[in-house]
Specification:
This protein has 235 residues and is α+β, with helices and mostly antiparallel strands. It has helices at residues 13-22, 94-109, 111-132, 161-164, 169-173, 193-198, 201-204, 219-232; strands spanning 28-30, 49-53, 64-68, 137-138, 152-156, 208-212. The strands form two sheets. A three-stranded mixed beta sheet has the order 1-2-3, with no helix packed on it. Strands 4-5-6 form a three-stranded antiparallel beta sheet, with helices on one face. The model has no long low-confidence stretch (mean pLDDT 90).
């Protein structure tokens, strides 16, 4: 996983690829959170396989792609037609593929500008959380702009477990979109397996929320969000 989808930790993908090659191991990267947000060159980073999802770079949901290095030795699980090079069956969703390509090109044409803008939003969010809710903690490395992605932050909030049960409903009522974990875990009542591994028992009793940032957000929205969280965390 190049970028963890809950706490944003960045993996040194080049180092993992190097170790894999030294040990004759095939290397697959879940790059869903990084494709469209970081420069990738598979000639420089010799991954064998990687996966991407188009909605992470602002294409409609329902399409993604896999990179498969030539002569990797991959064998198909389901016999497919020649349009999928024999790896899977099914008719391709052509309109989604065209949309993915357009979104992909736009993401990289504007990458540096959008990186600077979105990183500025996250930096502002971190500063405001520390100032307005000083007892809050950033989970993992999400409070470090150098060691985590610039597109999300995960915050442990200083409220009681009883009050925390209402926390996800409260921002939603106020028009704020955030989550307790990844979309993959929606409907699960076991909590985040990521946070279960890294947080203390005391912090696990407190609610944690994941916030994402994009080119469509503003500092005014962050001010509003911080205000709602500050009001909620008042004792």
């Amino acid at each position: 996983m190049h970028v963890n989808n809950e706490i944003g930790n960045l993996l040194d993908i080049a180092e993992v690829a190097k170790i894999s090659k030294e040990n004759s191991a095939l290397f697959h990267s879940d790059s869903v959170q990084s494709i469209g947000h970081y420069n990738w060159d598979v000639k420089e980073v010799p991954v064998d396989f990687l996966a991407a999802a188009a909605h992470k770079f602002h294409d409609p949901k329902g399409i993604g792609f896999a990179y498969i290095r030539k002569n990797s030795g991959l064998k198909c699980m389901i016999s497919g037609g020649s349009q999928e090079r024999g790896f899977r069956a099914g008719t391709e969703s052509f309109h989604n593929i065209v949309g993915l390509e357009e979104a992909f090109v736009l993401a990289y044409d504007n990458l540096e500008i959008e990186q600077e803008f979105v990183r500025g939003l996250k930096e502002y969010f971190i500063e405001e959380v520390k100032k307005e809710i000083p007892e809050a903690k950033f989970n993992g490395l999400s409070g470090n702009l150098e060691s985590s992605t610039y597109t999300l932050a995960n915050v442990c909030l200083p409220v009681t477990p009883e009050k925390g049960l209402m926390l996800l409903f409260h921002p939603d009522i106020k028009g704020i979109a955030c989550s307790k974990g990844s979309a993959c875990q929606s409907g699960s009542d076991t909590g985040s397996h990521v946070l279960n591994e890294i947080l203390s028992e005391e912090d696990l009793k407190k609610p944690s929320l994941r916030f994402s940032f994009s080119k469509y957000n503003t500092k005014e929205e962050i001010d509003y969000t911080i205000g709602v969280l500050k009001e909620f965390t008042k004792k």
